[in-house]
Amino acid sequence: MIIREAEQSDIPVMVELLGELFSIEKDFQFDREKHARGLSMMMEHSGERVIMTAVENGTVIGMCSGQMSVSTVEGGWSLWIEDMIVSKEFRGKGIGTVLIGAVEKWGKSMHACRLQLLADMDNTPALEFYRHEGWTRGNMVCLRKKLV
Fold first, then answer.
1. DSSP SS3 for 13
2. Backbone angles phi, psi at 139, to 5 degrees
3. If DSSP codes are grouped into helix, strand and coil, which group holds residue 89?
4. Is 46 exposed, middle or buried (CB count within 10 Å of its CB: 0-12, 13-18, 19+)?
5. What is the DSSP letter of 10?
6. Residue-wise pLDDT tens digits, 11-38
């Protein structure tokens, strides 16, 4: 297995991984076209964004993305982790740890002083994974408002 930055040719497989992820999360509906467009936008506007992939025998089996934002609390850069997913048949092998570690390493190289992410409160396996990886819960609540 290798960990590398995503390539445009990876988008179809990454969209399928997002389908697997969004089937777990109650807040999101799978939309192949929108997800492909979002992944493409992230890669076209790289520099403050990254998508790392886990590749086994030439096939993407996992992904994790990160986007930089300014944190006024930290007085510096914060890295939002998103789209962390390992294909079901490859889970439990440490791939998620390596993927999130690769995004964290990238964030450090971009001078991020904090990582943050959102996880579905009913996704117990994911919450346990993040707890095991040293993540802690805060008191903040995610609020959303659609503009389109």
1. helix
2. -95, -5
3. helix
4. exposed
5. G
6. 999 999 999 988 887 788 889 999 999 9
CA atoms within 13 A on the CB side of 122: 7
pLDDT digits (tens, 9 = 90+) for 50-91: 999 999 999 999 999 999 999 999 999 999 999 999 999 999
Residue with tokens 């991020």, as numbered in its chain: 112
What distance lies between CA 105 and its chain's CA centroid? 14
- The pLDDT assigned to 10 comes to 97
Strand partners, 68: 79
- State whether residue 130 is helix, strand or coil: helix
Q: How far apart are CA 108 and CA 141, in angstroms?
A: 26
Token pair listed for 76: 């510096």
Q: At 49, is the secondary structure helix, strand, or coil?
A: strand
3-state secondary structure of 51: strand
Q: Work out the mean pLDDT of the chain and round it to a whole number.
A: 93
Write down the pLDDT at residue 144.
Answer: 86
- C-alpha 39/C-alpha 11 separation (Å) is 7
Q: Which phi-psi region, left, alpha or beta, contains residue 53 (left: φ > 0; alpha: ψ -120 to 50)?
A: beta
